[in-house]
Design goal:
By secondary structure, the protein is mainly α. The chain has helices at residues 17-40, 47-68, 98-122, 126-152, 161-177. Helix 1 runs parallel beside helix 5. It is globular, with a radius of gyration of 19 Å. InterPro entries: Ferritin-like (IPR012347), Spore_coat_CotF-like (IPR012851). Keywords: Sporulation.
Length: 178
């Protein structure tokens, strides 16, 4: 007997809010890494690494974004349902990359939280678990500091879903067009 996942039983008019936020997390992270990978490509000296690892990573990031961006039209934000997203410029403005690099720090901190939480649950050695717990607390503080910095400077409009998703579209489309 072959198991298959059911198709959508009830076609939804829009994504659930919590699924929209999951979509945001993946698109924001992927766009950030794609931008960084493209910036670093010129510094890869090993041709095998460049062709089979780096360029493949760039291509996979592009595919992920192209696969996921159409779902933004199903976000529970009326302005996202328009075919006209020209208001979200894909051009880099100026040369200040503070928002980009601080976004990398936010992704780093969030990944650290997940990694430490997983490591704590899998560790039987109490002294190592205590060390992981201590480092988890420091990672939580780093995440809070980075998040607050970004929020204060409007780099991360966490409380405005429409702006958050608009930033995702802008940040995802920019490296796709370069």
């Amino acid at each position: 007997m072959k198991f298959s996942y059911p198709t959508e039983i009830i076609p939804s008019l829009h994504l659930a809010c919590h699924k929209t936020l999951e979509l945001h997390e993946i698109v924001a992270m992927t766009a950030n890494y794609l931008t960084e990978f493209k910036m670093q490509l010129a510094n890869i000296q090993d041709s095998t690494c460049e062709v089979y690892i780096w360029r493949l990573s760039v291509a996979l990031c592009k595919i992920r974004l192209l696969d996921l961006l159409p779902f933004y039209e199903k976000a529970p934000i009326p302005m996202m349902h328009s075919d006209n997203h020209e208001m979200y410029s894909s051009k880099l403005i100026g040369v200040d990359l503070t928002a980009f690099y601080v976004g990398k720090l936010l992704i780093f901190a969030k990944n650290a939280l997940c990694n430490y939480a997983g490591a704590i649950t899998e560790t039987a050695t109490s002294s190592l678990r205590e060390r992981f717990q201590s480092q988890l607390q420091k990672a939580i503080k780093l995440h809070a500091n980075v998040f607050n910095f970004m929020l204060e400077r409007s780099y991360y409009p966490a409380y405005h879903l429409d702006q958050l998703l608009a930033n995702d579209l802008k940040n995802a489309n920019a490296p796709l067009k370069r």
